[in-house]
Amino acid sequence: MIQIKVFGTIPPCRNCKRAEQEVQKAAALFPGQVEIQKLDALGPKAEAYGIMTTSPLIVINEEVVSIGRVLPAVKIADIIRNALQSA
Question: Does domain 2-67 have CATH number 3.40.30.10?
Fold first, then answer.
């Protein structure tokens, strides 16, 4: 199971909403293989990654893959695919 954490502001800004939408699109290509968590970028779980930003942050299997920008679903799907192949 691939774990994706999407950190964003609460309430979410436009980029945080887009980041979550792109993660959802990518995850839909791998039914039953991806778990998504939406978390507060200013919360204690974000601090564990040493991130001090309110921009979108995407973590896949405990690896930070995007900080402060929205990755397209195609790129996220590639990362998921590679993680599944490595497992």
Answer: yes
